[in-house]
Amino acid sequence: MAQHQARKRFGQNFLEDEAVIDQIIRAIGPRPVDNMVEIGPGLSALTRPLTQALERLRVVEIDRDLAARLRNHYSPSKLEIIEADALSVDFGALGPNLRIVGNLPYNISSPLLFHLLEYADAVVDQHFMLQREVIDRMVAQPGSSDYSRLSVMLQSRYRMVKLFEVPPEAFNPPPRVVSAVVRMVPLPADRLQARDAGVFSRVVARAFAQKRKMLRGGLGDWTPHIDWDGLGIAPTSRPADLSLADYIALADHLMDKGVVQVA
Q1: Residues placed in the known binding site for S-adenosyl-L-methionine
Q2: Where does S-adenosyl-L-methionine bind (predicted)?
Q3: Is 262 inside a domain boundary?
Q4: Same structural domain for residues 133 and 179?
Q5: Cross-strand partners of 161
Q6: Is the overall model pTM greater than 0.85, yes or no?
Q7: Residue 3 lies in a domain
Q8: Most buried residue among 30, 61, 76, 243 by CB atoms closer than 10 A?
């Protein structure tokens, strides 16, 4: 089979280390009847062992040359190929009890994680390899320099565990960063959550838009309407100081005041 040249525009770095591949597959724990979707199968590092473990696997691949290689190598009864940008895929149309896995391209990792948030109700779990820096932000706690909008939004919907790190030499070509693997399990319906997800998202986004500013400055024209004492939040706090519960309370408060409208 002809050698495939990694394409920078797709953020391609192909996993080759068999020990790391085995470690990821063991972490996923695929079962034959699982409704599993792999994002970015690339040169089949995970696809191969997954198809051996599953009755059927779906993959999402944007690179038409790689999609063609997959079609030549796997039976359509074993592998369904969705040739598309993962950011445009309606994962809700792929059925219930989804298990989503993948070595996600670094250049779209955050937008893709936000896209997948929309489908969390249909998901059992997600296992992704990402840039270590991104996973550190995903699991960061309040007060940490890594704590960000990504932290708050994902922690509002998933229980996440950073499983292990993967060195650059496990890939071809080697990326200039260390990677890591994360497990994401959607939280149950009785989780602590804001009354309106859209309002919550807008409040978190505005707060972190000026991460170094005190909230009383960063929240702009919302600030005069906030009962800081009632919420137990200091107006001199910075966005990274607030917990998930604080952001939920702030979002509900601003909605009740009519400051942030329900979409």
Answers
A1: 13, 15, 40, 61, 85, 103
A2: 13, 15, 40, 61, 85, 103
A3: no
A4: yes
A5: 183
A6: yes
A7: no
A8: 61
